[in-house]
Amino acid sequence: MGVYLSTPKTEKLSEDGENDKLKFGLSSMQGWRATMEDAHSALLDLDNDTAFFGVFDGHGGKVVAKFCAKYLHREVINSEAYAAGDLGAAVYRAFFRMDEMMRGQRGWRELQALGDKINQFTGIIEGLIWSPKGSDSNDRHDEWAFEEGPHSDFIGPNCGSTACVALVRNRQLIVANAGDSRCVISRNGQAYNLSRDHKPELEAERERIQNAGGYIQMGRVNGTLNLSRAIGDMEFKQNKFLSPDKQILTANPDINIVELCDDDDFLVLACDGIWDCMSSQQLVDFIREHINNEESLSAVCERVLDRCLAPSTMGGEGCDNMTMILVQFKKPITQTKEASGAEQSTGDTECSETHVAEENGS
Fold first, then answer.
1. Is the Cβ–Cβ distance between 17 and 6 less than 8 Å?
2. Alpha carbon of 189 to those of 172, 219, 265, 281, 284: distances in Å?
3. What is the dihedral of CA 4, 7, 322, 358, to 10 degrees?
4. Can you tell me whether residue 245 is helix, strand or coil?
5. Please, how many CA atoms are within 13 Å of residue 96, restricted to the half-sphere of its CB?
6. Taking CA atoms, which of 123, 226, 340, 356 is between 20 and 30 Å from 196?
């Protein structure tokens, strides 16, 4: 079987949910690709005050994306930083934790369980699309202690995944990203990117790759990967003299913390199968055109997927797996009280521009 199918698989996995603060819809479609390597998380109740959303775009196999969808939010909520109220530090640590957990016998066994088959020599594993249920977040935390066994020297999979996640707690939005999936917010109809696509040609990425002994060929890391940060891909993370954030490829996420306000309409997280076909502003405009005419937010997402699907595989764009999560803020954010019950001050009603950069041609 080649990279592409003879006809696209247009069946969609869609879901909707809401609480008193947020409403979300999502949809995922395999499209022209021979396998489905995307996964996602959508949890309105990470705790009583916090929602968690994430998209994970796998490459070389799908189990790392599935692993992240299953475990990343658990590692966030079970961290000491999360208990202390530092959500940024909690999600930052969770990205690196994914690589740690996929090593050794326990990691090998879990990856094998998530997939249909495993190549013990390359670490490339195949499986089905994965989406966690809300009850997963309540499971008892497992410390993933080192285990002796036939695969205790397993360094982790050579397939990998992007990760772009958003946590919403009251008026605070925390976005973490590694790779080229993207998070965008609509503020009064204007698209603002809350994440940066990590590509090898970026100066900081190129410098890290070369300092770690890697190279860039035809816009790809060591001639293979067209992105410069990801979870997994352990063959690019084997320099024992460098910390995890300095490796050829790193899971190191950019963290963006935004104060939400009444001008914020909705949030979008999507894999590059969407962004290859539409700019951030084009997607925001499309959503605004259809959001009041569809019966659900997932139906809006489905429209986007159909809009992006290419008529053939000749051009390349529109031929990737596609996953999109649309999160709508249900009521004026300034009416939402902090968890402490204190009223918002009048000065807090203004939008903060500190951490939000307007889209620049992406």
1. no
2. 20, 33, 7, 8, 7
3. 90
4. helix
5. 12
6. 123
Q: How many residues does the chain have?
A: 362
Cβ(76)–Cβ(91) below 8 Å = yes
Residues 6+ positions from 113 with CB-CB distance below 8 Å:
none
For the segment 95-106, what is each residue's pLDDT rounded down to a tens digit?
Answer: 999 999 999 988
Work out the number of other CB atoms within 10 angstroms of the CB of residue 226: 14
Q: From CA 177, how far away is CA 252, in angstroms rounded?
A: 8
- Tell me the pLDDT tens digit for each residue of 184-215: 999 999 999 999 999 999 999 999 999 999 99
Angstrom distance (rounded) from CA 358 to CA 114: 39
Which residues on neighbouring strands pair with residue 154, listed in sequence order? none
> How much of the chain is in helix, strand and coil states, percent to nearest 5?
25, 30, 40
Q: How many other C-beta atoms lie within 10 A of the C-beta of residue 289?
A: 11
Domains of the chain with CATH codes: 6-133+154-331 (3.60.40.10)
What are the two backbone dihedrals, phi and then psi, of residue 18, each rounded to the nearest 5 degrees?
-160, 160
Rounded to whole angstroms, the Cα distance separating 193 from 9 reads 30
Most distant CA pair in the chain, distance: 62
The rounded Cα 25 to chain-centroid distance in angstroms is: 15
According to DSSP, residue 362 is labeled -
